[in-house]
Amino acid sequence: MTLSGAHYPVVVVGGGQAGLAASYCLRQRGIDHLVLEANRLGHEWRTHRWDSFCLVTPNWQCRLPGFPYRGPDPDGFMVRDEIVRYLEEYAASFGPPLIEGVRVSRLRRAATGVFELSTSHGRLTADQVVVATGPYHTPSVPRVAERLPADMVQLHSGDYRSPGQLPDGAVLVVGTGQSGCQIAEDLHLAGRPVHLAVGSAPRVARFYRGRDCVAWLDEMGHYRKGIDEFADADAVRMRVNHYVTGRDGGRDIDLRAFARDGMRLYGRLAVVAGAIMSFADDLRANLDGADAVAEGIKDAIDAHIAAHAIDAPREARYTPVWEPSADHPRSLDLRAAGITSVVWSTGFVRDHRWIEVPVFDGRGYPMHWRGATSCPGLYFLGLPWQRSWGSGRFEAVGRDAEFLAGHIDASRRLADVCGTLTGAPPTLSVALPVG
Ligand SMILES: Cc1cc2nc3c(=O)[nH]c(=O)nc-3n(C[C@H](O)[C@H](O)[C@H](O)COP(=O)(O)OP(=O)(O)OC[C@H]3O[C@@H](n4cnc5c(N)ncnc54)[C@H](O)[C@@H]3O)c2cc1C
């Protein structure tokens, strides 16, 4: 199969939930388009989630356009294979013009204004392009990893599958974002001795006063708050997610309880010298900080309940079940502790280098407003906090897709009127109905 010489009004790059949502919304508007996916539909969920993985967000938040979750457990949390099935069924519901196994290796904008896409199956052109390649591209592993003993098995959270994948012995998990905490729990539940380097990620309680905290926050309008409403929008976009789990019907992740039950906690990893690791003196502060965030969210829920005179059961507040002692260890001898593997749960970095269009800031983050960039016809979809909390999640990617489809449609109509998209007079460009 070759795509060489083909031209489409719109090309969507990426066949995850964002790319599919974009396709659905374009189809609804009768806009001819093509979706190119480097691997298989839903690739990230299929290949980069561990065996016991389940959603952290409740199923009712899976609101892909035209295909909201209608399963038997709206308050539950789909496991990995159910999420893949949900995406497959979504695609089957409308039949997107999706081609799998085609990687876009280069995106440029020609002098004529048309976009040129170099792909593994030839070069094609498009009037408009939606980049829906997800936010998590390259595993980020700190370079101190190079200093570990050569026989230490190391892997990134994106490649972790199950405890059985790791050699016998204790495991060091570095990082306590959502993945790190859940992987540490997975290993802990399997009876593996776990050492955990704790960072500053916040946490949220799973349930409070009779409901999932996500349900309260939804009712409180938290998820409708736009990024433009934050004075520190840039910082909000880069924030680490709160840790909590949907496992076994959902529960808190309480690192203090893990420590009480035998997991060894440390502060942030600072230095690696062969088999000796040193940690910052911030374990207490990091645990306290995470608890403070969780309790602050409960304060806000209490205020909401009071303000609306809601009949909700009272619930005792959290009391720490474990505290690090004053002389809590700040170093770890991997050999003495019997550690044979390290799981780096240290996040991902974006890689948009294949996009050769000058729409990025100094950090490589695409500058956009609600996904529309300063380059006419180039859009992003599925970025965390693109427009609101749920933009990089199931919750609001559909709303963003609908918005962009409207924008694309308007641009197309404007181009029809003006004869050329990119040559549109500025007065008409600013009059686009984008609100
Ligand atoms: C560990 C983890 C847990 C998460 N848990 C939740 C949760 O509980 N609830 C929730 O709502 N969200 C969750 N998310 C966030 C989000 O829903 C996922 O990251 C989701 O995969 C994002 O979907 P997407 O379509 O934007 O991107 P992706 O799923 O990353 O899809 C992008 C697609 O683009 C393809 N691609 C990339 N580059 C190219 C290219 N150059 N050419 C062609 N194709 C390309 C990839 O193969 C991939 O299939 C989680 C994310 C992670 C990492």
From TrEMBL:
It comes from the Bacteria. Pfam families: Pyr_redox_3. One of its GO terms (molecular function) is monooxygenase activity. Keywords: Oxidoreductase. The keyword Oxidoreductase applies. This is FAD-dependent oxidoreductase. It comes from Catellatospora chokoriensis.
